[in-house]
């Protein structure tokens, strides 16, 4: 028998075999010690079936109890599981009754050592209602806890079903005659049964029962300090009906009790809608974070405070503006609902890092949200803990959110607010410096349009560029965009009157080197400064290395038609970088030998396309050679 079942062979054949053994009249005879006492530590097929998830297990268990019918002998396996436990699991009511009739001390002292479960725990876990009632009638304690600190009521509330009938039986047969249930007992995780009932799935009926049986609607988890309302509002599924029912049921309980309680106690029975958990979040924070828009007005109608900040200083408005899944509609709905209820929302509240909701909306690139906040009185001049104003925040973004910049100036002008275009952060950096460091060309143009001061402008350092570009370097076409943007940016700054110096050029060259825009500059030395077809062809081939767009660091400044021609340049290589000053000297020497002087050099700014290469057509002046590194552009040109 044992060999067949333990081998895991469970099917019709085994069932017929068990029935055959029963019909032969075979009964289990327990082994005894030298004093005739039965040896109870003995693993049987019943233990095996109970601890393995076998489909259709219960009929086998019932048949096996025809063989193991000595109910004064409660066999126990190595884990502490007894035959009485197995009977409770398999809903063998007659077997349970027989064990109890024979006076087995198996109600409260018989625990499954592995889990700490009592027979009542197992009965409710497997939804054995009649077995549970039998145990309760015979004195089972419903307040015993298992190894996880869970009572049978915890087990019911933790289950997958809304077992309200089982819970009702537990309360019904655990009255004063037996053991009244402690409805707010916390398990080892700090949860009460009400917490567990609300944590998962649809258990509205169970929730109502617990509240009517006196469960505290404001009980907190010892670890997270979450109340039942926090748990509901933090769920990701649709919980509107549950939240409304939670309040309605609690109000019913209060109405039935208020005549017996003094007014102070009565008021404390209400749901604390502004309670904070360990993170300082209120239920309203979670409703807004999870996007339960249908509950916003409901909680505000229950006196939820729209301005309470959590431990990080984040108000509900911060929560909306910092959530990547929210739209401007959500923000406007929140603001309009508060306005309708005559609640003032603090749009300029600052969190622990000094960020206002406007800062967060701009960091996320939410143009419509930012526009709404500005229209509601958000102050773009407020600086956070690192000195960033709203304008700093926009200009730091590598995505060149020029529309946001333009919108900020437009709304501020309409409200007659002065935007501090030259405000400095804690490191002394202006919005213009951040826009330059992030290569935001259009934003730079807008800043100049609105009066950015170029006279005090300091070209960003290498570390400033790295800080601004650190995130964007992983996107597609980053290198090509970087090179082309750098050329446009330098041209823009020069047109506005800024004079690039050698340090600025070396800064950008070092930036190019860091991001791999150079291949081997030294390899190009021999290609520089030749205008014959053969050399032009070699230059053209070299230009196909992994360097992408023309960048002259502001060194080449064409005039008239030459400038127009230079804009036709499609691609090039950088022949000399900061690490190859020797190449620069060679170029300078060649230029000098051609009569250009020690302080000037020439390079192509336009060419005519010919077979096999390019031909110089015009010349352009460059800066004083000793002041800066020379960058020689050589590549395929458009036809002129």
From TrEMBL:
It comes from the Eukaryota. SUPFAM superfamilies: Ankyrin repeat (SSF48403). ANK repeats lie at residues 115-147, 189-222, 279-311, 353-385, 427-455. Keywords: ANK repeat, Repeat. InterPro entries: Ankyrin_rpt, Ankyrin_rpt-contain_sf. Transmembrane segments: none annotated. It holds the Pfam family Ank_2. This is Uncharacterized protein.
